[in-house]
Amino acid sequence: MTTNQNQNVVRFITAGSVDDGKSTLIGRLLYDTKSILVDQLESLSKTKHARVTSSDAGVDLALLTDGLEAEREQGITIDVAYRYFSTPKRKFIVADAPGHEQYTRNLVTGASQSDVAVILVDATRVDLDTTPATLLAQTKRHAAIVHLLGLRHVVFAVNKMDLLNFDEAVFNTIKIAIQDLCKKIGLSEPTLIPMSALLGANVVTPSKDTPWYKGPTLLQWLESLDTSPQSEKIGLRFPVQYVARQDGSASDDFRGYLGQIESGSIRVGQKIKVLPENREATVSKIYLGNRSNHEHTSNEVESAQTGESAAISLAEDIDVSRGCLFISAEDANPPTLSKQISADLCWLDTEPLSLSRKYALRHTTNTIGAKVKVIERVLDVQTLSHALETHPLKANEIGRISFVLQKPIVADLFNQSQRTGAFILIDEATNHTVAAGMIREAIA
User: Fold this and answer.
1) Tell me, what DSSP letter sits at residue 44?
2) CB distance 107 to 142 below 8 Å
3) Which has the minimum average pLDDT: 80-94, 102-116, 276-290?
């Protein structure tokens, strides 16, 4: 994918508590950008599940994203609903994440695939009688998760301002609370937009009810974002996912190493190192896409970039298997071969973290046995401070955990690479994905 293509596509997720208006907001974006087909509108206008409707749309905008029958019956979003729309300036892929605490794992999944987070805050549910005003716990949790996952752009959409007469003083009070939240969890200075998703105020078009607000609408803000690839903090990272061999005669022998380039680039003739064995080799051929057969000469290229799936052939006959990692032979900041790591975890399972249980840690294309060494700290979502006494993480809790691994992994830190610095934790007994992890320290 070229830089221009990357720049033209915005992947964002909406987050926030239940009934903050996430699905209605996305419905409004789809409706006002004319991304809804006529038959969809007619179907929704006749639905027996209609709840609150937009006065000008005549349909329940939330139903445009609440696709599951269970969601429509319960009035909540359960799964991550992906929708697509475009404007003359950009293309958008939006994930409507569940607001209910029970489905936090779905939020983590959606956010991990996004560059941008739109965190909704229901202005009517903020406690304005405290100093600073008190935000909902789920709003704090989602902001903390967005920060841990390293999303590049974050906006807080202060929704339902129409129910508070678009009061500037109320907005400013909520703004102070959000700024305080961001400071405590380490988010950069936030962008805030007062809006009404139901009425469309400051979503796509500016609202006459907020003459005191001089900033962009949500769509204007999304269209203005710089989503071009960031300058690489690390060089080539190519985890080998599969080894493909061409059956046939000796003269027709072919071996290609398949995977996705997680960072950097690779070119024919380049000297690489294969980790963890630390052996050097030379790139002889590169094929893009799923086709690794050397007969597909039209698919052979001289180089490949970050995000592209490729099959790599080497000039030397060395031992390479699934789980190996290709890096540049001249890498000045190579990953660490680590048997002990410290990581931030977002716990997703109903069963709490066990100090005695063995887990499977899935990192890039490797799966390694892992055991908890120590619970370093646990985040108190209410106070946004770390608990004085640690305890095993429970569902939706966030903490810093130290692990001892069965064998070393080739690890980068998460702030260097969100691909090779992240992992998931699997309970070997149930095969459930129990946590998402971000590596903060790798000990050689």
Assistant:
1) H
2) yes
3) 102-116
